[in-house]
Amino acid sequence: MNGMPIWYELMTPDVDAAKAFYGAVVGWTFTPFAVPGEGMEYTIVEVDGQGVAGMMPRPAEAPIPAGWYAYFHVEDLDAKAGEVTAAGGKVHMPASDIPNVGRIALVEDAQGVAFYLMRPSPPPGIEGVENTAFSETLPGRVAWNELVTTDSKAALGFYGDLLGWTSTEAMPMGPMGDYSFVDCGITRLGAMMDQASPDQPKRWGFYFSIPDVDAAATQVAELGGTVLMGPMEVPGGQRIVVATDPQGCPVGFVSGERP
């Protein structure tokens, strides 16, 4: 479906260390993948044999910092990349094809937050593309997407026009403004919010579903990561923890059923 997150990718300075960390905290397994024609090391992150994300070394010339990034599904990628620039964003990596994977472009929204656009191409013999990367209920997947930005109202307009997202509900957070929930069709993807202070990084953040964030917080510290917030309960009863992995890449974890 247009606008849905269909892949997540960690660009990291140390893939092996990242695999050890996330394998322990989330329970992922990993399979090497040869990107056709790229000569690049790539790792598929799996849960029960299903690919849910990827990892790759951060190239020295990369225009974006190390961290987690989302790929959003679009049907006409070239047209959408044009819409990004017309709306005040940037195209960091022009549209390019990866055989049996899809057509992708690395872009930046009007507030300077990077993400990917993708038109997936299923391998020969496979009809359609099953999205296993985002799930409100399945373990080991991203269960919540959160944008922290300089202007969440402008961002809602940008992503609404580009990806067809809507926002019909918000949670007031006092002086911090609204926590605006975002939907793609009938699916709640996450939310957007303004920076709490100019020092707070503007970025897309992702919460991976795990059984117990309290236990994970202890693991994060033991494995060389840093807990930034939590563990704590959020409205609705779920528990979250926000951390950085040992390479300094921000990541969130969530446990419990979404209300």
From TrEMBL:
PROSITE patterns: VOC. InterPro entries: Anthracycline_SecMetBiosynth, Glyas_Bleomycin-R_OHBP_Dase, Glyas_Fos-R_dOase_dom, VOC_core. Gene3D superfamilies: 2,3-Dihydroxybiphenyl 1,2-Dioxygenase, domain 1. CDD domains: SgaA_N_like (cd07247). Residues 4-120, 141-256 form the VOC domain. It holds the Pfam family Glyoxalase. PANTHER family: GB|AAF24581.1 (PTHR33993:SF14), GLYOXALASE-RELATED (PTHR33993). This is VOC family protein. The lineage of its organism: Bacteria, Pseudomonadati, Pseudomonadota, Alphaproteobacteria, Sphingomonadales.
